[in-house]
UniProtKB/TrEMBL annotation:
This is Threonylcarbamoyl-AMP synthase. Pfam families: Sua5_yciO_yrdC. It comes from Candidatus Alistipes intestinigallinarum. Residues 12-197 form the YrdC-like domain. SUPFAM superfamilies: YrdC/RibB.
Amino acid sequence: MLVKIYGQNPSERELKRVVEALERDGIVIYPTDSVYAFGCSLRSAKAVERLRRLRGRSDAPLTVVFDDIAGVAEYCRVDNAAFRILKRNLPGPFTFILPASSRIPDKALERRRTIGIRIPSHPVARAVVEALGCPMVTASVKDDDEVVEYTTDPELIEERYGRDVALVIDGGMGDNVPTTVVDLTGEEPEILREGRGELQ
């Protein structure tokens, strides 16, 4: 099912429909400031497990999406240096790797001690997380590590994945350039993948 949500003044009714799907252990596909992404509630171990199966890689690291930096500090260990980097670059097309706190469920970590975090600049992504009242576990919509053309068009995404997810949010045409991934767990920030974001 395709649900249209506009970035300016997102419909509360449609957001409620998305939240209800997420609270029933559903997976949704939603727009970000880079590629479209799968998302499920961090509170739903069942949905996180299904998301891993859907991606076909049970051990692949997942990312958690927040609506603000205060949320990140609740679920990750953020020192002053990391906080300044997050403040300068978020919201934006970045995935930052941080040490996870005990609030991140084991299902999302899969024996890791770190987690990728995102605060997209796309207003629909942040509105969904805010309405849900907890972070979303997320993974990019892509095939075999390649972002393919259909992944920018919500109607084509719905054709491809409509049977596998509760709904697809149409937030307009997406991008096919992934996020810049930055590891903040060492002495210095380390760029693991160059993407849309330029680190400030």
